[in-house]
Specification:
Two copies of one chain form a homodimer. The first copy, chain A, is of the alpha+beta class. The first copy, chain A, contains five helices and nine strands; from the N terminus they run αββββαβββαααββ. In chain A, strands 1, 2, 3, 4, 5, 6 and 7 form a seven-stranded mixed β-sheet that branches. In chain A, strands 8-9 form a two-stranded antiparallel sheet. In chain A, a hairpin with an 8-residue loop joins strand 2 (30-38) and strand 3 (47-48). Residues 1-10 and 228-233 of chain A have low confidence and may be disordered. The interface between A and B is large, with 39 and 39 residues. The structure holds a DNA duplex.
DNA sequence: GCAAAAGTGTTCACGGTACACCCATGA
DNA sequence: TCATGGGTGTACCGTGAACACTTTTGC
């Protein structure tokens, strides 16, 4: 070890700080998330969440965006902080805490997945068929899944899972896939429309071999919490 | 091997990791929180949240308990993680991120407040009359207040603000003080009792100059999320 | 005309809210 | 007997859930 390290150690012995990102996306009517295959030790060749170290003067969120793009090529997504995992033994290399981020990609959006030195492979996995995961990433994912389900029901976060224009059936399908349950079509439409979060646009979807559906778009340009739960964030 | 050392070197360039604690308690029918007057620079003599550095191999929650006790003498409280604040310029000494914790003390509980070298003074402040605060602590407190209001309505977290035995009026008062609004007595009782979270015990409160009230206690030994919101955590 | 998804209303149960009076005790 | 907080019930409204048929298009 160099002298520099020694000095730093004396000043403040602080844990390493990292970010990990759980990126969800609905693909083929399935809720999927993005994983990388680790190209380096520890857990080499095992699947893990994209993530890495926070730079000395880098905002946490920026580190999350950067690591995601470096390791997977993904950018332009919705991102919010999830929870900070700090178990002293969660990383075999030594103490490291991870600020986990929760991210959503638009259903239609094409990502140009690319791998990197430390991410030998990148791929989408159904949340129902996850491989064994490195570190405590399984725990982080479970937490993210709960957050996603909750936010879908009590916020307009679905906007980040859908393209600008969509049909009510597509919206409903998104809810069903994420929540893992069937929803009554009439009740769903009534409720969603009553919330005034989406509005119909003049166009209809064309060239479908059945009655052309109305296209809708989200009204507000930002993410909202519905009713009293505005208190949460 | 050389490579390994190189990685270590990079890792050392990590932000400092700290914890801050927002401890709430109801005193004299007012929602208060615990602050320290800083005994050291920066922000010397200014009021701030209790908190400090996380030790190299210390769990985050443990660091929060430790710092709180060291700086204020307070122990045996309810604690949960709130949010991680990581703005690069939040600390004038240089990059530091803070994992904020949210804590609750029992209304009757006596704390032996004591000051320390870095906490020259310790005191409770009404959330409505807070002094100017060091760092971004005002922001952290606002966030904690929202979390508290929300959790009070959708979880049984009130258990941590009250002593083992309490009257329904005391419970209602706690809700009113935290939420900052009057609640109808009959509706409150109906709702609370219907939730089956509390049960009456045989004893009544004695030596009061009016009809002696029934004493109640929380049923479950742990903290719960009510109804569908079990999804959140 | 048929396949395929779009679109549409009513009924019922339950939880939230508004609202006012009598009760038990100590002084 | 009075002052003080304790304790109780009913009526109304809005939201959530259950449930089935007609419509519009492309082929």
């Amino acid at each position: 070890m160099t002298k520099k390290i020694k000095i730093k150690k004396e000043i403040i012995e602080t844990p390493r700080l990292m970010v990990d990102i759980v990126l969800f996306k609905v693909i083929d009517n399935t809720l999927k998330l993005l994983l990388i295959r680790r190209g380096v030790k520890p857990f080499k060749n095992m699947w893990a969440l994209p993530g890495g170290h926070v730079d000395k003067n880098e905002a946490l969120e920026k580190a999350a965006f950067r690591e995601l793009e470096e390791e997977t090529g993904v950018k332009n997504i919705y991102l919010e902080q999830l929870y900070t995992f700090g178990d002293p033994y969660r990383d075999p290399r030594g103490r490291a805490i991870s600020v986990a981020y929760f991210a959503l990609g638009e259903s239609g959006q094409k990502f140009h997945l690319k791998s990197a030195t430390d991410a030998a492979e990148v791929d989408w996995f159904s949340v129902k068929k996850l491989p064994r995961l490195a570190f405590d990433h399984k725990k982080i994912i479970n937490y993210a899944l709960k957050r996603l389900c909750w936010k879908l029901e009590y916020t307009n976060i679905a906007r980040n899972l859908l393209p600008k224009l969509f049909t009510l059936s597509e919206l409903q399908k998104t809810y069903e896939v994420v929540l893992g349950k069937k929803i009554d079509k009439r009740n769903f439409r009534k409720k969603i429309v009553a919330l005034n979060l989406i509005k119909p646009i003049k166009k209809q979807k064309k060239n479908v071999a059945y009655r052309p559906p109305q296209l809708w778009t989200f009204v507000a340009g930002k993410n909202l919490i519905l009713d009293k739960r505005e208190l949460i964030f």
